[in-house]
Amino acid sequence: MTARQDITNAVEGAALGEVAAHFAGPHPIVVEGLVNRFGDHVIHENLSLTVNRGEILGVVGGSGTGKSVLMRSIIGLQIPQAGSIEVLGRSITGDGDEGDVDIRSRWGVLFQGGALFSTLTVAENVEVPLKEFYPEIEDELRHEIARYKVMLSGLPAEAASKYPSELSGGMRKRAGLARALSLDPELLFLDEPTAGLDPIGAAAFDRLTKELQETLGLTVFLITHDLDTLYEICDRVAVIAEKQVIAVGTIPELLATDHPWIQDYFNGPRGRAAQNSQERGRAVKADQAVKADQAVYSDQTGTAASADDASGTMDNPAGGEA
Ligand SMILES: Nc1ncnc2c1ncn2[C@@H]1O[C@H](COP(=O)(O)OP(=O)(O)O)[C@@H](O)[C@H]1O
Ligand SMILES: [Mg+2]
Fold first, then answer.
1. DSSP SS3 for 137
2. Is residue 18 situated within a structural domain?
3. Average pLDDT per consecutive 10 residues, the chain (322 residues; last block may be shorter)
4. 69 touches ligand 1 (CB under 6 Å)
5. Contact (Cβ atoms closer than 8 angstroms) between residue 216 and residue 93
């Protein structure tokens, strides 16, 4: 072997090593035959779903159809009765593989309602996963990473030292997003991120999600019933009904099916409005979203509430924030 080949091999080996650290397969999430039950209440019956790497997958379904339970199963917080779940090539449902602990550092989650710690500042919230997974990182570097994630989420630098109660609903969502991004995840789970936001705030959050997906190369599992979100940023949409994923595809593909729930949902008055709005107004919306982003900066001075809800509980875990 020539010296030149040696060097080439070494470089290729190093490059492969780098790539191997990130999941390079086509399907970062594969769910097969999932069964979830609470007592007699069957939530999922033989549910299967495959997520493509790099896509934003919208997940829709009526209230209580098990969207959040599905997400919790995928991230290992809900142990299913049957079925298999693979995330980033690793089994979530297999028995106690020690290696599974650090797989949690490769995804970020924005739970329904945000679930920030109310007694911690935004920056401290962002630092929680860093402390858990990388205790060896020194304080100053950790603060620096947190500040960077806060800004990446479209919050002004000053927001880092605010408490959740001092922030508007839209800013809390961004703070939750900053925390979800704290460990540079490959996968981002968002559970109804625009619920409770006004349409402009929701459009701005959508745009941010899309930008992050593109620039960071994320795969996004996005539970929503916001039709605008589905039209604007989702590559495909999975529909949960009758305890299963009844269809998955682009919106035109879904519209071509004759399932009554899908037809009602996408072709009902709200679906049509979202479709028209998308056809008419991407530019207008983007412009409004920029204004909403700017408004975030003035927001924090206007709406600051007292910071003394020192309950030590999660901020508004049930969701439905204003
Ligand atoms: N920990 C739990 N114990 C019992 N029932 C639950 C639990 N979590 C969720 N459920 C039930 O499972 C169903 C699906 O819930 P969920 O996934 O939160 O619905 P959604 O699609 O609105 O997110 C609901 O009927 C809910 O009441
Ligand atoms: Mg839910």
1. coil
2. no
3. 47 43 93 97 98 98 96 96 96 68 89 89 97 95 96 95 94 96 97 93 95 96 94 97 97 93 88 77 58 53 34 38 36
4. yes
5. no
Question: 64 CB under 6 A from ligand 1?
Answer: yes
Instruction: Give me the DSSP letters along 259-273.
Output: -HHHHHHHHSHHHHH
- Single out the residue of 31, 59, 60, 57 nearest to residue 45, CA to CA: 31
SS (H, E, C) 159-208: HHHCCHHHCCHHHHHHHHHHHHCCCCCCEEEEECCCCCCCHHHHHHHHHH
Q: Is 61 in the pocket of ligand 1 (CB under 6 A)?
A: yes
> How many whole angstroms from 168 Cα to the centroid of ligand 2?
21
Q: Is residue 216 part of a domain?
A: yes
Give the domain extent around 74.
24-252+263-302
Q: How many domains does the chain have?
A: 1
- Domain annotation covers residue 149: yes
Look at residue 29 in the predicted model and tell me its pLDDT.
98
Query: What are the Cα distances from residue 30, in Å, to 44, 107, 259, 272, 293?
Result: 15, 15, 24, 32, 35
pLDDT of residue 10: 44
CATH number at residue 87: 3.40.50.300
pTM over 0.85: no
Distance CA 294, CA 301 (A): 13
Provide the total of helices (H) and of strands (E) in the chain, helices listed first: 10, 10
Residue nearest to ligand 1 atom 18, measured at CA: 68
Can you read off the two tokens belonging to residue 29?
A: 């999430």
Q: Distance, CA 67 to ligand 2 centroid (Å)?
A: 5
Q: What are 235's two structure tokens? A: 């590559």
**Among 34, 35, 37, 38, which is best to mutate for testing ligand 1, by the most ligand atoms less than 8 A from CB?**
38
Two structure tokens written together for 286: 């983007």
